[in-house]
Amino acid sequence: MSGTLRALGALALALAASAADAGRSCEQRPPTALAVARGMDLAERTAARLTETGADVVVLARAGQNLSEYGLRYSHLGFAYREGEGRNAVWRVVHKLNACGTAHASLYRQGLGEFFLDDPWQYEAAVVVLAPQTQAHLRALLVDNRAIARLDTPAYSVVAYPWSSRYQQSNQWAVETLALAEDPQAATRERAQAWLRLHGYEP
Question: What pTM did the predictor assign?
Answer without folding.
Answer: 0.84
